[in-house]
Protein 1
Amino acid sequence: ETGVTQSPTHLIKTRGQQVTLRCSSQSGHNTVSWYQQALGQGPQFIFQYYREEENGRGNFPPRFSGLQFPNYSSELNVNALELDDSALYLCASSIVSLMYNEQFFGPGTRLTVL
Amino acid sequence: QKEVEQDPGPLSVPEGAIVSLNCTYSNSAFQYFMWYRQYSRKGPELLMYTYSSGNKEDGRFTAQVDKSSKYISLFIRDSQPSDSATYLCAMRGGSARQLTFGSGTQLTVLP
């Protein structure tokens, strides 16, 4: 069973640019969530995708958008990058169930905006 | 006020010490309580989760939930240098999609 993978590992962009981050879910998982983790903080929920549809969103502006593909891989797109977007972006996959859905995290993509 | 407040640390203890990590929360809708461990430059990994008030033990780790006080704790017995990491508490409501995390406590266990 393969775990959650993310690419790229590191990324440096300048303010105003656009970026796409990628995530490959753990085998058998049908739900993917994206989190932003600023330095010294806990992860903050951006949004979740289930069956290729956005299934919940945190307090992030529309310039943060995503996609989920039929093979359950996912992308996070951020437009008009701002300095405060510098953070570790984490992808987590899970299987939606009634009681509990453990979220398995990938290693993250560290984005630096200059 | 944040929904989840976590003792910020950093915390430095000698090997073999008992470590206590704590979080408080304000949202009564939270039903699932988790502790994640995050090593430097890695994603969080789940250590323990609990659903109800009380204690849950797994090896050297004990998770404690007190819903009446909105307080959760993680105890690490016989701490080891390999336990050095950032510990994150996380919570979720019954029908909510997302996890709400504390800000993390950085723990260093000195040999």
Note: The CA atoms of residues 3 and 33 of chain B lie 13 Å apart.
Protein 2
Amino acid sequence: QAVVTQEPSLTVSPGGTVTLTCGSSTGAVTSGHYPYWFQQKPGQAPRTLIYDTSNKYSWTPARFSGSLLGGKAALTLSGAQPEDEAEYYCLLSYSDVKVFGTGTKVTVL
Amino acid sequence: EVQLVESGGDLVQPGGSLRLSCAASGFTFSTYWMSWVRQAPGKGLEWVANIKQDGSEKYYVDSVKGRFTISRDNAKNSLYLQMNSLRAEDTAVYYCLRGSLYWGQGTLVTVSS
């Protein structure tokens, strides 16, 4: 099965911007992988932020946005807040199966 | 309000079996794909299996094929995961999902002697 790779950790200043990426061992990530992004804080269940590359839910803060960037899926956080400190995971679909990314720990400091 | 409540997690010996359940409410259960995702202690998320609305299609991660079976009962608004031949590496919190959107709070499965 495919391996989906994310940056292990990233640090962003309060109010700053950071971009997380999600790459596939099989090649370029496309809209056909229907990328999802999830946020998980310690001791909590994950929460879905983005679906199908760039679509948001009613609870998704406006400062989060999804895109495709350089053959990868990307999650951009613009105007980081202390409460955005969390682990972030992407999820890609490969026809019958789905694979989560390795996760990115985002520190707001 | 969408609610997903998992149950059935327990301590089980290697080689044993366990059946997880997920009670769904707040939406028309029979119209959605449902999934199981797990997270080993201190590790990342792993997609385990999903099942089509009518149960006619089921897909699994390679590591559980032949050991786990996902099923559903649309009349009872319930999703299940039958886990056989359990291994230490199956130890994790198991989450029930509606598609890839709504998550339950999870149930802990510990495989240990």
Note: The mean pLDDT of chain B is 97.
